[in-house]
Design goal:
The complex is a heterodimer of chains A (468) and B (290).
Chain A: E1 4-5, H1 8-15, E2 22-25, H2 35-45, E3 51-55, H3 65-70, E4 74-79, H4 84-91, E5 99-101, H5 104-113, E6 120-125, E7 127-128, E8 134-135, H6 150-155, E9 158-163, E10 183-186, H7 207-222, E11 232-234, H8 238-254, E12 258-265, H9 267-274, E13 278-286, H10 289-297, E14 301-303, H11 306-310, E15 324-327, E16 331-333, E17 338-339, H12 355-361, E18 364-368, E19 372-373, E20 376-377, E21 379-380, E22 395-398, E23 401-404, H13 409-416, H14 425-436, E24 444-454, E25 460-467
Parallel strand pairs in A: 1-10, 2-3, 2-6, 3-4, 4-5, 5-24, 6-9, 9-10, 11-12, 11-15, 12-13, 13-14, 15-18, 16-21, 18-22
Antiparallel strand pairs in A: 7-8, 16-17, 19-20, 22-23, 24-25
Helix pairs in contact in A: 7-8, 9-10
Chain B: E1 4-9, H1 13-17, E2 26-30, H2 40-53, E3 60-64, H3 73-80, E4 87-89, H4 96-113, E5 121-122, E6 125-126, H5 129-133, H6 135-139, E7 147-150, H7 152-159, H8 171-184, E8 187-190, H9 199-212, E9 216-219, H10 225-232, H11 236-255, E10 261-262, E11 265-266, H12 269-285
Parallel strand pairs in B: 1-2, 1-9, 2-3, 3-4, 4-5, 6-7, 7-8, 8-9
Antiparallel strand pairs in B: 10-11
Helix pairs in contact in B: 9-10, 11-12
Classes of the chains: A alpha/beta (468), B alpha/beta (290).
């Protein structure tokens, strides 16, 4: 059986892709991905219209997608995250129908259960053999885990592997197996590995970020969850990384041997595992090249699929076993609802990613955020968009101290025993209004919804409006 | 307690707004060297607004004003004193006359604004050779004075010597300042350690200051705060020992003993005094985030 096809054009023809179908992409090459643009250009050249693109995330490198939306090649968009430049175009209303936003766990779940039907999955693979056994761990464009592509590969009607590093059959180190692959295409380059670096990999110097991180780490210590067998997740980026930094100090000092760290994995978490803070890393995506290197050589650095990470319909997931997660927010309101989709003006600039999933599952979910950024309040009366519902959030940590969700009376009791400063959400709101005032409302056209946000239970939890 | 006094530029709104979250016992809002002459009025305005609108919690607010040989010091005081900073830090203080002028001005302003006379304190910066020679008389010249701060950068310029990380050139100044302040019954504070990215050097310099008798240290970078706080806080061993001293005194009282010993060592008045200070410091730190 021959799966190798010499050009993208022929591969697209071979899949039988036609008007109105749904195609999918993963985002493991993050800001360095070439594949989505490459495939979309060929599809446009083939004259195919009215497609829905289901991409696990979209970055600014995918901005050419906007021209395909304008020309009618793409008329539907489903994703878990969009970065600011694409977000701005979508907020301006470039797409006629609303973008469907899911969390990483829900996307995988919907594909597995058949709620989301993908006609053709185009999967960028840093190394593949001619039958489609492939991996992200090796090759010139290595990106590490291919966690978000597993469901697409298995459940799409047609699966195409696109690689720039073809090796002889059989590839031993395989993430996606040939049993799910229809075609393999070789291109010059699938991406720039430098572009996969997400957020920052250096500890921040900003003293406020450090103070917040220190409070968060001490709150984790005081919660009683920081003991042998501890499991942890945190994002990339300054404040989250700093929490990991303070936590590492505490864990090493007390000799605490954790179980696993989960999620997007950074070099910092790799260091923590190597120094004995965690037995293993469960990696759904690599956030930097150090993590890529580690997943390739260390058997305790385990690649997991998005479904295993956090599918709400799986029998169990890694997220279900998670003790503590530290997450960010563009806004958080008096009911602890968190916005990670839009900025304070309502412009799209993000998405749930795994935020909603792990917040719902972890025993302790902590939001770290300053009270204000550039004179804009982060703690507000009502968020512009509910990305993660307030009942999933246990603690908010700002430079003013620690705020406990009143639903967690047990946690409030435990933390009251510590020396940590506890402040109420109402105190924070009062302070933020005193400091920053009440912002003018942005000009939203209420009638025109440009985004629908789905919660893990498939309920539409909020909508995002066009900004004029 | 002023284990740490953190300098913040008077014209940096973000740093001032966040000033009380940086862990320092005091913040020094600087109108002097951190602010260029064309920014003096903007900084004064900002510091005034900050004192008026922001709350700094348990963090003490000190305003460093321009020296009396500049055209700025009077307007600095006129603008900020009505909003009641805890302490004014006058610069290049070389004699008691400077303090007299300041006290006169503060008296007038406090009276005018209905503030309690004497409620705004003074913490003079000693940073000239003459000022160092007059340190004791300066420290004893007014009840407003709570301490003396050594300014090593200007002092070494005045002494015509190089300022080094090891600080041998300021050994005399440090000893002299501690002695003068203690003799006058006020607190001595050490100069900042200026190598921002040298945590080991910071620790060595701070431990030296503590060993010489300083009560705390000025810092110029928020990253230095926690280490300096830690060094100037009583250790658990010191607290334990101080508690044992008082337990031994109580025990001896019950037994009607005159001479008291602990671990085979006589407890005399200086030991009791030191134990008292350690316990006072420990109590003051309870609930304070270090």
């Amino acid at each position: 059986m021959k799966k190798m096809i010499s050009s993208l054009r022929e591969v697209i023809a071979a899949t039988g892709l036609s008007d109105g179908m749904c195609i999918s992409f993963h985002h493991h090459l993050r800001g360095g991905d070439y594949v989505l643009n490459m495939v979309m250009d060929e599809i446009a050249a083939a004259g195919i219209k009215d497609l829905t693109v289901n991409a696990s995330s979209l970055f600014d490198c995918h901005l050419p997608l906007v021209s395909h939306i304008k020309s009618g090649v793409v008329t539907g968009l489903e994703t878990n995250y969009v970065s600011a430049a694409i977000g701005k175009e979508l907020s301006a209303g470039v797409l006629k129908q609303p973008v469907i936003f899911r969390s990483h766990g829900l996307r995988a779940s919907d594909i597995v259960t058949g709620r989301s039907v993908i006609d053709v999955a185009f999967i960028a693979a840093p190394t593949s053999d001619p039958m489609g056994n492939c991996t992200g761990k090796i090759g010139p464009s290595a990106c590490g885990s291919l966690g978000y592509a597993y469901a697409d590969a298995e459940y799409a009607k047609k699966t195409v592997i696109i690689t720039d590093n073809l090796v002889s059959y059989p590839l031993q180190m395989r993430s996606i197996q040939e049993i799910n692959v229809d075609y393999v295409a070789v291109v010059d380059s699938i991406g720039d590995p430098q572009g996969i670096v997400s957020g920052t990999t250096k500890m921040p110097k900003d003293p406020i970020a450090l103070r917040i991180a220190e409070y968060a780490a001490k709150a984790i210590e005081s919660s009683g969850l920081l003991r042998d067998g501890f499991s942890f997740q945190t994002g990339a980026g300054g404040a989250s990384l700093a929490v990991a930094g303070f936590l590492k100090e505490i864990m090493l000092k007390k000799g605490i041997k954790g179980s696993f760290a989960l999620g997007g994995i950074t070099g910092y978490l790799v260091d923590m595992m190597e120094q004995g803070c965690f037995q293993s890393l469960q990696d759904v995506q690599c956030f930097d090249l150090k993590a890529v290197d580690s997943i390739c050589r260390n058997p305790n650095h385990i690649e997991i699929s998005a479904a295993q990470y956090a599918s709400p319909t799986a029998k169990s997931t890694a997220a279900n076993s998670l003790d503590v997660v530290v997450l960010g927010a563009t806004q958080i309101d008096k009911n602890f609802n968190v916005n990670v989709h839009t900025d304070s003006s309502g412009y799209l600039m993000g998405g749930s990613g795994g935020h909603t999933d792990v917040a719902a599952c972890a025993k302790l979910t902590i939001i770290v955020a300053p009270l204000s950024r550039a004179r804009t309040s982060i703690v507000v009366d009502k968020v512009k968009c509910v990305s993660t519902p307030g009942e999933s959030i246990d603690l908010l940590v700002t430079e003013y101290g620690i705020t406990v969700n009143p639903l967690r009376t047990d946690l409030l009791e435990v933390l009251a025993q510590s020396k940590l400063p506890i402040v109420s959400i109402q105190q924070l709101l009062t302070t933020s209004v005193a400091l920053n005032g009440i912002p003018e409302e942005t000009n939203e056209r209420e009638a025109r919804v440009i985004g629908e946000v789905y919660n893990r239970d498939n309920r539409m939890i909020d909508v995002i409006y066009q900004i004029l | 307690m002023r284990r740490t006094m953190l300098f913040l530029p008077g014209n940096s709104p973000n740093m001032i707004a966040n000033g009380s979250f940086l862990g320092a016992d005091s913040i020094i809002l600087d109108l002097e060297d951190a602010v260029s002459p064309d920014n003096k009025d903007a900084a004064r305005n900002l510091v005034k607004s900050a004192l008026k609108h922001l709350t700094f919690g348990t963090c003490e607010v000190i305003v460093r004003i321009n020296s009396l040989d500049t055209p700025y010091w009077e307007i600095d005081l006129e603008e900020v004193v009505p909003y009641h900073p805890d302490v004014i830090m006058p610069t290049k203080v070389s004699d008691c006359l400077t303090i007299e002028l300041l006290v006169e001005k503060l008296d007038t302003l406090e009276q005018k604004c209905g503030l309690e006379i004497g409620s705004v304190k003074l913490l003079p910066l000693i940073e000239t050779a003459l000022g160092l020679e007059h340190a004791y008389s300066i420290a004893s010249s007014s009840k407003r004075i709570v301490g003396l701060l050594l300014g090593a950068e200007d002092l070494t310029a005045d002494l015509r010597c190089e300022r080094t990380k090891e600080g041998r050139e300021i050994e005399y100044a440090r000893g002299r300042l501690v002695n003068a302040a203690r003799a006058a019954g006020v607190e001595p504070y050490d100069c900042p350690f200026t190598a921002i990215a040298d945590p080991e050097g910071l620790a060595v310099d701070t431990m030296l200051a503590k060993s010489l008798g300083f009560s705390g240290k000025a810092v110029i970078n928020p990253r230095h705060v926690s280490r300096v706080n830690e060094i100037f806080s009583p250790t658990t061993g010191e607290i334990e020992y101080a508690k044992n001293v008082f337990a031994a005194i109580e025990e001896a009282g019950k037994l009607g003993k005159g001479a008291i010993s602990l671990n085979g060592k006589m407890i005399d008045a200086p030991i009791v005094q030191r134990a008292k200070l350690v316990l006072e410091a420990a109590r003051a730190l309870e609930g304070v985030n270090t």
